[in-house]
Amino acid sequence: MLRIKTIFNSTYQFQRLFSLYKTNNEKNSMSSPAILNSTIKTLIDKKQYKQAVDLCYQNLEKCTNYTISIAINACNILNDYQRGIDIKEKIPSNALENSYIQTSLIRFYTQCHDIDNALHLFSSITKKNSFIYTAMFKGLISNNMPEKVLDLFDEMTFKPDKFILAVLFNACGEVANDRAMKIGRKLLDDMLNNYRNDIVLLNSAIDMLMKFGDVQGAERIFGSIKTKDIITYNAMMKGYIRNKIYEKSLDLFEQINFNVDDVTYIIVFNACAQLANDRAIKIGKKLLHEMPNIHRNNNVLLTSAIDMLMKFGEVENAEHFVKLIRNKNIMTYGALMNGYNINGEPWKCLKIFQEIKQKNIVLNEIIWNLVIGSYSQIGMIRQAEYISNQIPLHIQNEKQIQNSMIHMWGKCGSIVKAQNVFKLVYDPGTVTYNAMINGFGLNGMGSEAIELYREMPNNLHNEISHICVLNACSHSGLLHQAQNIFNEINLKTEKIVTIMVDCLSRLFLFDEALNMIDEYEKKNSPCFVMYMCLLSGARNNRNRNLSEKIYNRMKYLFPDQKQRLGSGVVLLSNIYSSVGEHQLAKNFRSSQIKELGVKVKMGLSWTDANGEIVAFKAHDHSHPQSREIHAEAGRIHRELIEDGYKCDSSWVTRELYEEETIESALCGHSERLAIAFNFIQRPIPEFIQVTKNLRVCGDCHEATKRIARIRQREIIVRDANRIHHFYKNGQCSCQDHF
């Protein structure tokens, strides 16, 4: 092949020559092929791809095979499929046998997702070389067909070079089944000695082994590399994250002693987000604070930072970084929406959803999933109906969306709608069954949860399946059934044992619960949540002595878990109040909260009345209709008194203020105000729905049963633990087991 290297001393000189060539070409079709090919190459070097492609197409018969190949590559850069096809149609048949052109055409077809033509061309080539195999393999991987790479590899008649090996490692890692692992490991074992120092190849091998879950194998290769680059560290850290070994990822990051790249920042932010513990928060915030400005223009990196900050609970800080992104894309909005959901701010998530719609951004499955997640948190049936009617049919038929909708309807208290979606799912998998079992459990339908768990194919059962059905048993008081299922489970994880402790504690079987914890701790580290389950049961039993012992043991075992210990303080102080020790409760609560340095979550209840979501806190007077709401609450209280209701002073969890009574303290609870708000609406809603971020108190539970019967309205209350259906006959779905 003739190659001509023309040196242009200036842009002016090149433009003059290009202009001269075009003028000559118009006058004389026999202009110099050497100048033509050199001009096309220089145009491509200067990224003037359209001019280069047009010039090649107009003078194809004078172009060398190499020039034609780079012109086809330029069509890829321009995303101009039609022009590429036009050039291909004009290529002489003998030129189509040139490996440069064949390789470029394979790249062109695969990048345009025309796999059929790529494979047809590939199969027609009798003398395939390394470049052709590499192009075909890469194209298949980019089109999510890594399994086909392994099929073609089986047909190879020569040993792969280092370029093919790197692509094969990638394909094996993507497939990661038994066949791929066998091929990948054999390729690694048979690798030539002179390749074992090739850092690019070894980085690919590390990535492959990590995708196999062979962390030790990846670590051996990492240890064998004498001069590691940032890509090596990135491959290892990413592999640790993939295998959920987040701490090791941070350990490795702290060993890096040279400048990191954008990929490193993204990986470390991801690891910190997954951990979200004190160490991760310190590393993540320090890295973000010291990040040079050059990295602050990368939207993917900033989106990772936003995700990390949201998982740290630093919503305002995350919002600050959102403002730095000028051209927000669907990934940025997705991270922001997910962050709001994580931090219990679904209304903000829905506000972002409206912003996306106004910008006419195409809504994908991920965004719809996040929106469904927001309505799951809000927990209002009418609101959920509104959003489900907006979801396009082709999105509704996606299994992940169907799973989310089952979960949403379950959390909104509409089991019938959840079951309707469940029946529509083609070939339900583990997640689908788990969502439905969990929905039954939340709504006090323990027997139905057990029945579906038994119908579920055994090979689909996983840890979450066991947790959901045991939780359903716990909330329905089905101890015997829970024990049978628990005994059938081979691998009793921390979460599974915790649910069983919760089941025993709810039935006040504290000796059995403590024995189970002691047995677990013989081989495992103590679990905070197990003790919280025990403390919660002791609170319901008003067992002061046991509660104190449990709390003191928690402080001893978990001194660093200050925020979670704050929840224990609230429970124990409530126990003191329930036995009339209000001053002790006040002193204990204030001193312990101050010592721990934490904030206590404010109780909130929200409701949906005629399409409006309204939130209330206890004794709230902020609503414009506050006077009418409190007047209605007073009327309801008088009706309750006439019905024989008596306030249960044990649920007054603080010292009364001046001129405050037990009745006024309890009647001002946020859920009572939310219920009263519904009754001043015209027309009064057919059913009333309230969601509460804390557990419903025993006095409000008794009052709501009576209100449902007296006012003949079904009332659905979702608290922090479960959903209560208060029926018109004065009964609750939880059968007072809460």
UniProtKB/TrEMBL annotation:
Organism lineage: Eukaryota, Metazoa, Spiralia, Gnathifera, Rotifera
DYW domain residues: 644-737
InterPro entries to which the protein is assigned, alphabetical: DYW_dom, PPR_At4g14850-like_plant, PPR_rpt, TPR-like_helical_dom_sf
Annotated PPR repeat ranges: 229-259, 329-363, 429-459
Protein name, per record: DYW domain-containing protein
Species for this entry: Rotaria sordida
Keyword Repeat listed: yes
Keyword DNA repair: no
One Pfam family here: PPR
A molecular function GO annotation: RNA binding
Gene Ontology annotations of biological process type: RNA modification; system development
NCBIfam families: PPR (TIGR00756)
Keywords: Repeat
Gene Ontology CC: mitochondrion
